[in-house]
Amino acid sequence: MARQLACGMGSFFEECGCSRPTHCPHPYTIRFRDALGKQREEVGYDAQDDAIERLTQIYAERKTTEPSVAQDDGVLDGLARGKLQVNIFRVLKAILRDAYSKGAVADDPVKDVQEPEYAREKVVIPSLTSVKKALTVADEYLALEIVMMVGCGLRNGEARAGNINNVVADDVYRCTSRSTPTRTSRRS
């Protein structure tokens, strides 16, 4: 007897071309979206009921998991979240103070509000031996970036954007641009 799955629960199927699909020995595959919304597949369910049971379990877990719990640590760690909150607070505070100073709001709305705390990450400066070790294993382009960063004090993007036109004297390099990695759009 076929069971009806809830909308958004996922799907199950067999990846075979058998002429008798009802008694096929091939395993079932399930396809679903995890708590982060990414599409996933699991293979190896012997019976249709096993696949449906696993989909039901995943669906129940997803419904009870909060989005903040589902966030991967690499996506949004606590420090990045804290910095974002501080930035948002400062912008909102500036807007509200401007409205108060122009008379749009009777009382100062941020008078007794405490700014969120943000703990900056500890800056690690590599030792000379670490830099030398990195230069031995780096290719020529990365080695040039490392030398520009260590020797000139450039940041990653500034070192990547370096070119011969920015050398203005024998011992002077003028940083006028920086390179940022761009996301390439995928076409369907």
Topology:
Blueprint: E1 11-14, E2 28-33, E3 39-45, H1 48-64, H2 67-70, H3 78-101, H4 128-137, H5 140-152, H6 156-160, E4 167-169, E5 172-173
Antiparallel strand pairs: 1-2, 2-3, 4-5
Helix pairs in contact: 4-5
Q: How are strands sequenced across the largest beta sheet?
A: 1-2-3
Biggest sheet, open or closed, and with what strands and sense?
A: 3 strands, antiparallel
Please mark out the parts with pLDDT under 50 across 5 or more consecutive residues, or reply none.
Answer: 69-76
Mean pLDDT: 75
Distance between termini? 37 Å
Strand content: 5-15%
Structural class: alpha+beta
State the order of secondary-structure elements, H for helix, E for strand: EEEHHHHHHEE
Task: Figure out the total of helices.
Answer: 6
Total count of domains = 3
What is the strand tally?
5
Report what the structure shows:
The protein has 188 residues and is α+β, with helices and mostly antiparallel strands. Helices cover 39% and strands 12% of the residues. It has 6 helices and 5 strands. The strands form 2 sheets. A 3-stranded antiparallel beta sheet has the order 1-2-3, with helices on one face. The protein has a two-stranded antiparallel ribbon with strand order 4-5. The protein is flat and about 80 Å long. The two termini are 37 Å apart. About 4% of the residues have low confidence.
List keywords for this structure.
188 residues, alpha+beta, two-stranded antiparallel sheet
